[in-house]
Write a structure and sequence with these properties.
Helix 2 runs antiparallel to helix 3. This protein has a two-stranded antiparallel ribbon with strand order 1-2. The chain is globular, with a radius of gyration of 16 Å. Helix content is 54%, strand content 4%. A hairpin with a 2-residue loop joins strand 1 and strand 2. By secondary structure, the protein is mainly alpha-helical. It has 5 helices and 2 strands; from the N terminus they run αααββαα. The chain has one domain. It comes from Xiphorhynchus elegans (elegant woodcreeper). This is PZP protein.
Length: 136
């Protein structure tokens, strides 16, 4: 279904999402989904505010960037074992990447550089068959 952003259903849905985005204690996964939804809706200010908030919560490690659930147990580095993140973390990081790249005007060089760090982490999560633990 192709609906205009002026359609009452879309307007009401965006109002609901904007109300949710204004809450102070949103989960990082919720912020990632909201940022992508606002990117698709062309709500640049909301998208940018959420991405700025998400950047503060990012895990920056080994030249890559990703997001993880609050209160998560730290990764264990073991010989001969390559840690793979749970599917929820792959999914929310992918939504942040989509939100980062879905914008008008197109992303700046700085935004593209940050997006490449996210893509680096996502690609490191591939399993030996080329897939991911995520079902999305």
């Amino acid at each position: 279904i192709s609906l205009s952003s002026q359609h009452s259903v879309v307007r009401n849905a965006l109002f609901c999402l904007e109300t949710a985005a204004d809450q102070t204690e949103n989960h990082v996964y919720t912020k990632a989904l909201l940022a992508y939804a606002f990117a698709l809706a062309g709500k640049r200010d909301k998208r940018k505010a959420l991405l700025d908030s998400l950047e503060k919560e990012a895990v920056k490690k080994d030249g890559s960037v990703h997001w993880q659930r609050p209160g998560k147990e730290p990764e264990v580095d073991l010989p001969y074992y390559r840690y793979r993140a749970p599917s929820a973390e792959v999914e929310m990081t992918a939504y942040v990447l989509l939100a980062s790249l879905t914008s008008q005007p197109p992303p700046s060089q700085e935004e593209l550089s940050f997006a490449s760090l996210i893509a680096k982490w996502i690609s490191s999560q591939q399993n030996p068959n080329g897939g991911f633990s995520s079902t999305q």
